[in-house]
Amino acid sequence: MEDTRQLVEKINQLFVEGNMERFMDYLAEDVVWEMFSSSSGHTTINGKKELFNMDSSGMPAHMGFEFGTIVIEGNVASVQGTSTGKLNDGGAYKGYFCDVYHFRDDKIANIESYIIDNRKVNGPN
């Protein structure tokens, strides 16, 4: 059995690779994902089905992620990092995030994502 850190690293790698089917294997059927974004406000996704069918048309294409600090305490893990991408209008995107995972029986039961995003980056960053 993997420890929580290994599990979080594997889950994040699947997300980076865009392997959503395998990523979904690590989610509880009744997972709740709350996203708090500086640009789009608060969104709640209830359950794997809703997450799988989520409209991602407003998301930047070709997202890149870099993960930094991982903190584990009991059945909770937090991960901070950055994301970059290209917007549909050709502009650059850069965001900063902290994801908090709550595990139940080696599955993610809840995710809270706190995102500070620059929808369009001017110049090099």
Considering the chains and any ligands shown, give keywords for the structure.
125 residues, alpha+beta, 6-stranded mixed beta sheet, 55% strand
Report what the structure shows.
This protein has 125 residues and is an alpha+beta fold. The chain contains three helices and six strands, in the order ααββαββββ. The chain has a six-stranded mixed beta sheet with strand order 2-1-6-5-4-3. A hairpin with a 5-residue loop joins β4 and β5. The mean pLDDT is 85.
What would you say about this model in short?
The chain has helices spanning 4-17, 20-25, 47-52, and strands at 27-37, 41-46, 61-73, 76-86, 92-104, 107-121.
Q: How many extended strands?
A: 6
What spatial order of strands do you see in the largest sheet? Answer: 2-1-6-5-4-3
Order of helices and strands: HHEEHEEEE
- The fraction of residues in strands falls at over 45%
Q: Give Rg in angstroms.
A: 15 Å
Shape: globular
Mean pLDDT: 85
Helices, by number, come to: 3
What is this structure's SSE topology?
Layout: H1 4-17, H2 20-25, E1 27-37, E2 41-46, H3 47-52, E3 61-73, E4 76-86, E5 92-104, E6 107-121
Parallel strand pairs: 1-6
Antiparallel strand pairs: 1-2, 3-4, 4-5, 5-6
